[in-house]
Design a protein that fits this description.
single chain; mainly beta; Coagulation Factor XIII, Chain A, domain 1; 4 domains; eight-stranded antiparallel beta sheet; eight-stranded mixed beta sheet; 11 helices; about 35% strand
């Protein structure tokens, strides 16, 4: 027990004298906490990371743990214990936050954690999941080093722990260290207790430093750290501007600054400052208010000059320890738009599980790919990320629960996002659902009801964090409950990206298919035939609003656009197999990972309605609009990297798609169909070729990154086929090169290998490879190069397709005999010719139409 009158030995007297002496030498890495007295907020400050975010606050100049739970801790980011031999001194004042009988009955402890280390040798991993040496005092008044023994009953004469000061020292003793923990009364200096251990391994004193509350509520203040073991890393601060995202399209810059939960008395706005024309002066060009729930500040700047790189910084005045504001800056570069770059490189991701956090490998290797655009297709967070579960209510706590996980995402990718456009598409786990059938935004008690389980304010908060930097929505009308929409387009470097929401409007299969008895997207009725009975009238995938958007987008080739790409959460086929007896996907994480050359024999094609293979009619409607613009498709979510070509009425009559592999695969799927694919290329794997998926949809499989024992460690990360996708769009050749990279591969090395089957290169026109029924005369153009050609069926006035050709000559194909209107030229300018009444002819007929485009 901590009792008054404990005997003081000579060693302890020396330690206390050293720590209290104002003239003591300032040692290497010295630190002293200082929180503002006039500010109350959840976020502790840029030098710290708290677990969990919602469990801590600063108030009246001290740090408080407001929740009694397992292993609540606060890590100091700017100091760390190094491998060098040396000494260490740590002290802090602390006390019970609630000094009542109920709080005294809690069996817990408070104190320090030293040498905290995670699995992946990074201070961020250590701050989130690090384990280390615990040193402190129990709620029963016992000092401990290592781990407290079972707490004893509180003694009648024990100190109440309302205000004590803990001192920890570490000194090398040969190969080991001696640790001494003492407690004293901060007002009188009276020693209350002391214990030591001299068997502490040197490795236990390497890593992070943290304050800890374990099943107790304590306050802390005046946290001091010094000693030659301490390393200083002031560059590791995280905040107050945590990270940024931006897009640039049609002369409009949109940027979002992600902020932490600030206090009511903190500044409520962020400034966007730029430096132009090689000037050293920073100019504030906009100021944005911070959203109360999302903690985002979003900027919209029109008439942006994208002809050169523009350095920017996001400035925020944070109230400091002296209760005065101090400016902090987050810096980046708004890149010159690559309008003349031959190849536009897109890096795409999905499934950001935190195995492998903080992703140093994938960030390093993606940087080597030099992407122009980043695309995160969904599941930027999972409910399990960062540990401690998740909270659904009340609203403010649920927001903080999500934000902590979202901040981890930004902590990984902020150095990629700060200097290039990035696109985020929230998916089901981002809004705390295993699957999402949004049903137009309705409220749902369970996800199978169709709709959103979380309240609309919370859903909008999530979407604001991930999508507020996107261009303005095509049609901003909210859906049910006032939930917003973000489907839109981005033109960048001549590539036009259509961003669609393939979950928000989708029908629930449980509601639409009562006979199937669907649970979580899987029919439980064994007699239900998904190929014949699943495609029911009224089942919606994208909905009329998004189909209208796709139709107009596919026809819009202005602004110098030469390539079209659709981005969505998942692909429009069900590329997966399961063991024959499996009724759902729960078995997937437990399936045996195959070795090279192995092929499971009893798998059958899956019918997972979470995939966009269902509903079939909605799927085909979307693909028909996409192929009108020869659009390529990038998506994720399936946890299985693949490249396929869609078919609607036949194989190969629609576009290609890349489903990117998961960054860290928590739910590994596989594709091992029992029969080889039709028209399979010689030497290709058995699982490639022409297939009907489990819903009867046509698809041609070109490559699949099945989970396989790779030999790389850790096995539970690298054997599940993690990685990312790279897509290269070539302006001059009008080609698309599709790449699928294992997470562990260094692409700069000559022997770097992608997953089996990649890279794949296709022509832009392969995205509408439907067989022609007839042809139009060859169009030869003068007065302009690379014109846009649009073919319109005069019988029904529908646009057949639109394409910016390469060169000056093009022979349009059509899919039925008839008369067509052909528009040739540069959209939205006077340089446009319209040819009406153009009759289709046979392929072997040679006819040419000369088209002269006028000048200015």
């Amino acid at each position: 027990m901590l009792r008054r009158g404990t005997r003081i030995d000579v060693f302890v007297i020396f330690i206390l004298a050293f720590l209290c002496c104002p003239s003591a030498t300032i040692t290497a890495g010295q630190f002293r906490s200082a929180w503002p007295k006039g500010i109350e907020r959840v976020w502790i400050g840029p030098e710290y990371w708290s677990n969990r975010l919602q469990d801590w606050r600063i108030r009246q100049g001290r740090l408080e743990c407001v929740i009694s739970g397992h292993d609540r801790n606060v890590h100091l980011l700017t100091r760390q214990l190094g491998k060098q031999k040396g000494d260490l001194r740590i002290s802090a004042r602390l006390g019970r936050l609630q000094n009542n009988e109920e709080s005294k009955s809690v069996n817990g402890w408070a104190g320090f954690r030293i040498g905290a280390k995670g699995r992946f040798n990074d201070y961020r991993d250590s701050a989130v999941r690090g384990r280390g040496m615990n040193v402190g005092v129990t709620t029963a008044g016992e000092l401990f080093i290592g781990w407290p023994e079972t707490n004893k009953a509180q003694g009648a004469d024990a100190l109440a722990l309302d205000d004590i000061e803990l001192h920890l020292t570490a000194e090398p003793t040969g190969e080991n260290y001696k640790l001494t923990i003492t407690a004293n009364d901060p007002k009188t200096g009276e020693l209350l207790g002391s214990i030591s251990r001299d068997d502490i391994s040197a490795n236990d004193l390497v890593g992070n430093l943290a304050l800890v509350c374990n099943y107790a509520q304590f306050w802390f203040r005046d946290w001091k750290i010094s000693g030659s073991k301490v390393e200083t890393h002031n560059d590791r601060i995280f905040g107050p501007v945590l990270f940024s995202q931006y897009t640039l399209s049609k002369g409009v810059l949109k940027m979002t600054a992600q902020m932490p939960p600030i206090g009511e008395k903190d500044s409520q706005s962020v400034r966007l400052q730029v430096r132009k024309n090689s000037s050293n002066n920073w100019n504030t060009i906009s100021e944005a208010k911070i959203d109360k729930l999302a903690r985002t500040a979003t900027f919209r700047i029109e008439k942006w000059d994208a002809s050169y790189d523009t350095p920017y910084r996001l400035a925020y005045a944070l109230i400091g320890p002296d209760d005065k504001p101090k400016d902090y800056y987050f810096r980046g570069t708004i890149r010159r738009e690559p309008v003349n770059k031959e190849t536009i490189v897109v890096a795409a991701f999905t499934g950001n599980g935190d195995m492998g956090f903080p992703g140093n490998d994938i960030v390093r290797y993606v940087k080597l790919q030099k992407p122009d655009v980043l695309v995160f297709t969904g599941d930027q967070i999972y409910e399990s990320i960062g540990g401690y579960g998740y909270q659904r209510s009340p609203l403010e706590t649920a927001c903080l629960s999500y934000l902590r996980k979202w901040y981890l995402f930004g902590w990984v990718y902020r150095d990629l996002m700060r200097d290039r456009p990035s696109i985020c598409l929230p998916d089901d786990h981002d809004i705390y659902q295993a699957n999402l059938w949004g049903a137009g935004g309705r409220a749902a008690k369970t996800m199978d009801d169709g709709g959103y389980v979380m309240p609309p304010e919370w859903v909008n908060m999530v979407e604001r964090t991930q999508t507020s930097h996107l261009p303005d929505p095509y049609d901003p009308r909210p859906v049910e409950q006032g939930i917003g929409v973000y489907y839109t387009s981005i033109n960048y470097g001549g590539v036009s990206f259509a961003i669609i929401e393939d979950r928000k409007f989708k029908s629930s299969p449980t509601v639409m298919l009562p006979k199937a008895k669907v649970i979580n997207g899987w029919a439980q009725n064994p007699s239900f035939d998904a190929t014949k009975e699943a495609d029911v009238p009224g089942a919606v995938l994208l909905g009329d609003r998004q189909l209208k958007f796709l139709r107009n987008w596919s026809a819009d080739w202005g602004d110098g656009v030469w390539m079209k790409v659709v981005l969505s959460q998942t692909i429009f086929s069900n590329l997966a197999t399961l063991p024959r007896k499996a009724l759902n996907s729960r078995i997937m994480p437990r399936l045996k990972i195959t070795r090279p050359g192995e092929y499971p024999k009893d798998d059958v094609r899956a019918t997972d309605m979470d995939s966009n293979g269902w509903p079939q009619t909605g799927r085909n409607k979307a693909l028909r609009q996409m192929r009108r613009g020869f659009a390529f498709h990038i998506a994720g979510d399936q946890h299985l990297g693949s490249t396929i070509q869609y078919g609607i009425d036949d194989w190969n009559d629609a576009g290609f798609a890349l489903c990117v592999p998961s960054i860290a695969n928590m739910w590994p799927r596989r594709w091992f169909p029992p029969m080889p694919g039709g028209n399979r290329k010689p030497g290709s794997p058995k699982y490639t070729g022409d297939y009907l998926d489990g819903f009867g949809n046509h698809m041609t499989v070109y490559a699949v990154a099945n989970p396989i024992i790779s030999g790389y460690k850790p096995i539970n990360l690298y054997a599940r086929a993690p990685g990312y996708g790279i897509v290269k769009f070539n302006r001059n050749q009008r080609t698309i090169t599709i790449e699928c990279w294992p997470r562990w591969q260094d692409p700069s090395k000559p022997d770097a290998k992608q997953y089996i089957g990649w890279p794949i290169t296709i022509k832009q026109t392969d995205n509408y490879a439907r067989k022609a029924a007839a042809w139009l005369p060859t169009i030869k153009v003068s007065g302009i190069t690379d014109p846009v050609i649009q073919v319109i069926d005069e019988q029904n006035r529908e646009i057949v397709y639109t394409l910016r050709i390469k060169g000056t000559s093009f022979r349009p194909k059509v899919f039925k005999d008839g008369t067509y209107t052909v528009k040739v030229g540069e959209p939205d300018t006077a340089k446009m010719k319209i040819l009406q009444g153009v009759r289709s002819i046979a392929l072997d007929e040679n006819q040419t139409v000369e088209v002269k485009i006028p000048g200015k």
